[in-house]
Design brief:
alpha+beta, twelve-stranded antiparallel β-sheet, single chain, 2 domains, two-stranded antiparallel ribbon, 10 helices
Length: 427
């Protein structure tokens, strides 16, 4: 039976406002429905309004939450396979799965109440995942060995938390702050969701856990303090993800209609062979679609399945390749990873992510590597290769030790050139 109390009537009020906004055509009304549904369990988890919650409701919330999580995860996995079969990108769905599993794992460790143990496990997992990502991305190489070494150092650092929890807690907090500010992670348009999700948030959570469990007296941590601390972390994480998805998703523009073409069918849109979901601007121009067959845009042959994007003025400006493809002489990474290959208005290539080490205009440029992508704000590298509009190499990272204009560079160093091909002094 539904309890009719202050929380119930507050939720009804939120739902009523949401209905009014929905009839007025505001898409954000959905947020009010979500807030109404989550109001009671959220207040309970924060240790508020305890007089309106009984044991039976707590058990119902727990069991229904578990079942809902399983259903949502299976639904997202089903959508992943459906998109793969339809030749569409699944990048954001992989992100949602990662967020869901990471949140589930972190909250499971925290709610067990053994904070010191949870902190050690979390920071150790960060080190192991870092090593795993680097190995999967670069295979077995010197770079991978270096990545594994970094991961093991982080694991060892976490194990020290068993002996010196408070010192390690402070060190982790300092590391998180340094990573945020020195990596410009607060510039959400440029920040990487992976860095936040797999590094910053777990490091902060581990720091808090080690601090709370520093005396091995978990019982002194009251339910209210626990709810406030970890509830604040949860709200902060949710806010970060929302800002990354909203601000970091790209240029803000006025969207028009969306049309879906069934798999196997093709439609010509403004001279482009499209299939799957087709997006338009409000002025009627094509914004984005996936190529139904091999097609040529701005003089560049692109394979079927490539996602192509246009400006509101109808200019082709970037694409996401479904497979590794030679772009204006450069083997560019694809394979559905979501790497954005960019072009200038007249069709010249602007940005590529190399699929293999290549010599470009006499410079040995390195292929994309995970290590550069994750830590690019720290050391000024991002794993991409850039060109000026006149075709001159603008930026790349070296695949071997090399001398440029008398300056000696090491493998992995970033080099920059002006439009005349002259070396720009390292910043």
């Amino acid at each position: 039976m539904i309890k009719r109390d202050k929380i119930f009537y507050s939720a009804c009020g939120l739902s009523g406002v949401g209905l009014i906004l929905a009839f007025m055509g505001y898409d954000l009304s959905l947020l009010l429905f979500v807030a109404a549904y989550l109001l009671r369990p959220a207040l309970h988890e924060f240790g508020l309004a305890g007089q309106y919650v009984d044991e039976r409701q707590l058990e119902i919330h727990s069991r229904s939450g578990n079942l809902a999580f399983i259903i949502v995860m299976l639904s997202i996995v089903g959508m992943v396979f459906w998109r793969i079969a339809d030749g569409q990108s699944v990048g954001e769905l992989h992100t949602l799965i990662g967020i869901g599993l990471a949140a589930r794992a972190l909250t499971g460790l925290v709610m067990a109440g053994e904070y010191q143990k949870a902190g050690v496990i979390i920071i150790s997992a960060v080190g192991l995942f870092l090593a795993l990502f680097i190995v999967l991305d670069g295979g077995f190489s010197i770079v991978s060995a270096f990545g594994i070494a970094i991961g093991l150092v982080i694991v060892g650092f976490g194990q020290l938390g068993r002996k010196f929890p408070r010192i390690i807690s402070i060190a982790l907090a300092a590391l998180a702050v340094a990573l945020i500010f020195f990596s410009d992670l607060l510039q959400f348009r440029r920040a990487d969701l992976t860095t936040w999700m797999f590094f910053v948030i777990p490091i902060v959570t581990s720091s808090v856990c080690l601090f709370l469990g520093s005396k091995n007296e978990e019982e002194v941590v009251s339910a209210r303090v626990r709810s406030i601390v970890f509830g604040s972390l949860g709200i902060g994480a949710a806010t970060v993800f929302a800002l990354l998805l909203i601000i970091g998703s790209g240029e803000v523009h006025s969207r028009g209609k969306r049309v879906f073409v069934p798999e196997g069918e093709t439609t010509e849109v403004q001279g482009v062979s499209c299939t799957g979901q087709i997006e338009y601007y409000q002025n009627g121009n094509l914004e984005f679609c996936r190529l139904a067959r091999e097609d040529t845009l701005s003089g560049q042959s692109l394979p079927a399945g490539t996602g192509v994007h246009f400006t509101e003025d109808g200019l082709f400006n970037w694409c996401m390749l479904q497979e590794d493809t030679e772009i204006q002489g450069y083997l560019t990474r694809g394979e559905g990873h979501g790497f954005m290959t960019e072009f200038y208005p007249k069709g010249q290539v602007r940005t590529v992510y190399l699929a293999e080490d290549q010599v470009i205009q006499g410079i040995p440029c390195a292929k994309f590597r995970f290590l550069s992508a994750v830590f690019w704000p720290v050391h000024g590298k991002n794993g991409g290769t850039y060109f000026h509009e006149n075709g001159q190499l603008k930026y790349c990272e070296l695949s071997e030790h090399y001398s440029v204009e008398g300056q000696r560079f090491r493998r992995g160093d970033a080099v920059r050139f002006d439009q005349d091909g002259k070396l720009v002094a390292k910043k």
